[in-house]
Here is the input.
Amino acid sequence: ELKIEVVLPEKDRGKEELSAGGKGSPRAYQGKGAARHFHADERLPAPHPYPGTQDCVEAAVCHVKDLENGQMREVELGWGKVLLLKDNGEFHALGHKCPHYGAPLVKGVLSRGRVRCPWHGACFSVSSGDLEDFPGLDSLHKFQVKIEKEKVYVRASKQALQLQRRTKVMATCISPSAGHSGSTNVLIVGAGAAGLVCAETLRQEGFSDRIVLCTLDRYLPYDRPKLSKSLDTQPEQLALRPKEFFRAHGIEVLTEAQVVTVDVRNKKAVFKDGFKLEYSKLLLAPGSSPKTLNCKGKDMENVFTIRTPEDANRVVRLARGRNAVVVGAGFLGMEVAAYLTEKAHSVSVVELEETPFRRFLGERVGRALMKMFENNRVKFYMQTEVSELRAQEGKLKEVVLKSSKVVRADVCVVGIGAVPATGFLRQSGISLDSRGFIPVNKMMQTNIPGVFAAGDAVTFPLAWRNSRKVNIPHWQMAHAQGRVAAQNMLAQEAEIGTVPYLWTAMFGRSLRYAGYGEGFDDVIIQGDLDELKFVAFYTKGDEVISVASMNYDPIVSKVAEVLASGRTIRKREVETGDMSWLTGKGF
Here is the structure.
């Protein structure tokens, strides 16, 4: 039997405090050969959260009667702020900012023993600070609270107050490879959110065998959604974890490594360069490949799909002071168009539908957003397609539309959707549906034992929509699926149950969305669309199935929390404009 070891780099020791989720998991995991048992008494060691009184600060922050159940407030400790809250009669003190993008959690939602971020929906346990739902990778610090003479005191380490994030304690690998050994316990194909969270979850749960993460990218896992929102961001600014993190926790990353076939009978993956790697457990998280135009001139220079930091950086460079055309008015296309308005001489958007986002957000919301773009000098060519791209001296000069209009273009960005990157699995015996997606069950298992799949390339049963099989290519959903896959590699019988949550940012305004709205038959709008301060409820029959908002925080997080609780929201509840049902305690 093997002991779990933890090796923390010196500079990380202060921020890795012991949490409920950071203990050795009392599970048996069948590796290659013998079972590895992690007993409950084999706890992961961790530095004491309060190493000395000189490193801590303690203060009375309020009277016990200042907070009622379900209330939150930020309190100042001198070295930083803390989120103080009262839940079920108990006071708790946590980090006050969401580790994902720094949202003030005091503006979020406290419900069912957790705090949900107002911006992107991440959830944290009030009792431990642990991350319970995504996006993001890190948890919150949990601080000591005591009551003396009707006053509430909070004690916190100064370092924790300044860090505002806590990386869970992880096992380290006790069987590292010598060079590129030909076998691994866990192979993860794809290093996006699903792949990275899977690897981290395995280590958090005490798994200490070899993990290999392979990616087509040149870079370690990075924040891909940022590419289209901030096109000139450099690769190092996008990194989700530094190189030292992977080294410290024994997660091997193979960059520019393409798996070309998977042999499920012999549990072996074959790479493009001929390298073969045996595995015991496999996660497939290959993501998707962008669709390209199918017209004359589609392969010429200066025509891009935004897939890598280099793509995004080159688009900005070529568009500066020149004419940019974006094909596709979905999320990626509209984010790119919004970003380029301050850089390019002109920005034009070509779209087959009548309004942007029409299938996702409906006609009225789409039109309101279109008006915002037009007010920012974006020209729309709707209900048409590209018929030809014309060059001058080998470089793009014009985009010809089927409506016979000709649009000047020095750079063209194509954002017309994506297809699952699963071609390498066609002969593998792993099931693919007619569109190339990998069907999985609620435990993220494929039809082959020991083979799991997660992220943009899967269809899975959506629990709160009667387990309807859906594909949801959202960043947050990929995180959640990666964790569930890891838990089930360790035989924990976890099920995917998260409520989908996504966001977009354009012209300094954020739109948030929760639920699954495909097939909506009505949209109930409260607020003012013209002022872009609204909430839109998407209904099917008598039921609210999704919600979108701008400048109406934290309503999307509140609705997500209601849906996560299992409660059905009826159409009549949102038609009246009375939102009191959303503010009730313990929904």
About this structure: The CA atoms of residues 420 and 457 lie 5 Å apart. The first strand starts at residue 28 and ends at 30. The chain has four domains: 56-166, 169-291+418-498, 303-416, 508-582.
